[in-house]
Amino acid sequence: MNNQTKRVLALLEMFSKGEIVIIENLMNHPLWYGLSEKTIRRDLDIIKSNLSQSFECVRTTKGAYKAVTNSLLENFVDNKMLSLLVIAYNIAKKNSLFSSLDLSKDDKYILENKIKESSKCYEFINKAIENGKLNLDMLKSIEFAIKHAHKITLKYNANSEKIVVYTNPYKIIFINENFYLVTFADDIFSVFRLLNIEEIAVSKDTFHKNYEVLDFIKTMQTPFAKFSPNFKENLIDVKIVVFAQKARYFKAKKFFNSQVIEKENDDGSVIVSYKFTQTLEVKSFLLSWIEDIKILEPASLKDEMKEILLNSLANFK
Q1: How far from each other are the two terminal CA atoms of the chain, in whole angstroms?
Q2: Sign of the C-alpha dihedral, residues 204, 210, 215, 221?
Q3: Pairwise CA distance, residues 7 & 30, whole Å
Q4: Which of 74, 132, 186, 307 lies 20 to 30 angstroms, CA to CA, from 80?
Q5: How many CB atoms lie within 10 A of CB 269?
């Protein structure tokens, strides 16, 4: 076994233990003592070029390396996961959420840099539209209250009106490019924009979570979702025709989780159905496609949309 083989095996052993390999420190190691920095880098290059199918050497800080297994990296570069990670990274970075992750400084650095690399191929035009940074201390208080089912008192700025609410926190959700806190207490389901919460006080009192509410949160499609007991039995069926010139967009993208292509017509149009808790959830969406769709049902939604359009005409006089 020649000296370079011994050095490469020693590097592999260090990496397998999760150690950070620092070039400057290696120069004092018996195997590398008296050798140049270029020699050490050549040893690292052997691992990078010949064992890249097993793991990847990732630079953490200047002159320092750590190995990340490719089974982990493959999860990062899966098409769906990559998109989610990049979005999550952008949100987390903007709101200082990385500081709350239970990771070592070097591991955070690796995670940030691996996701940053996606910017070479991806550009996310639609950014999270939060205008300010989230209060990290307040966020931690909310997380604690959710995890341990503690009641909270929150001060909230609702359209310039300050309100105080004593409630039960269930989940923090990210929907329609904003963060919200979902609460439920005394049969009242509420969704609070996180940036509009001015203060949180965690109570010593605890509560028992309603599992139907938790199930409902998983099915939410908009911040305007309205909870009711046995909600699955009370959903409103919405059905539209999408004209041929725009049908391909609806076939290619699921705009809401409940979207189903019911029928593809001979003229190229498609019939699309949705399920919502109230028509308020879908009105803005339908308005954005108003020239390219026809509402089939419910009749009450057609009447509501007609009224919106007629009232809007006054704005163009």
Answers
A1: 88
A2: negative
A3: 10
A4: 132
A5: 20
Cβ atoms of 145 and 169 closer than 8 Å: yes
Task: Report the distance separating Cα 243 and Cα 246, nearest Å.
Answer: 6
Q: Is 104 helix (H, G, I), strand (E, B) or coil?
A: coil
Ramachandran sector of residue 268 (left: φ over 0; alpha: ψ -120 to 50; beta: rest): left
For tokens 């297994």, name the residue. Answer: 69
The series of mean pLDDT values per 10 residues for the chain, 317 residues long, is: 80 76 84 87 78 56 60 48 56 53 56 62 58 76 94 92 95 87 96 93 96 96 96 96 97 96 97 97 96 96 95 86
CB atoms within 10 A of CB 301: 20
Number of neighbouring beta carbons within 10 Å of residue 221 = 20
The pTM for the full model equals: 0.67
Residue ranges and CATH numbers for the domains of the chain are: 3-71 (1.10.10.1200), 78-120 (no CATH), 136-224 (2.30.30), 235-316 (3.30.70)
